[in-house]
Amino acid sequence: MYGYVASKTPKDKVQQDIKANLKRVYDEVLNEPVPERFKALLAQLRDQDKAKKPDV
């Protein structure tokens, strides 16, 4: 736009660090196993759904 490349400022470095840390934390949470409590709730919902639907 103005014909120059913006230099890395301390603010840019902080933003890069925040981005990297957020990605790391997100990846860690994404790779956690599903808690047994949630699996049990999902199974209950599936069973309820099957009971409501007529066999086709």
Automatic annotation (TrEMBL):
Among Pfam families, the record links this protein to: NepR (PF18557)
Every Anti-sigma factor NepR domain range = 15-49
Annotated protein name in UniProt: Anti-sigma factor NepR domain-containing protein
Provide the species name.
Answer: Pseudorhodobacter antarcticus
Taxonomic lineage:
Bacteria, Pseudomonadati, Pseudomonadota, Alphaproteobacteria, Rhodobacterales
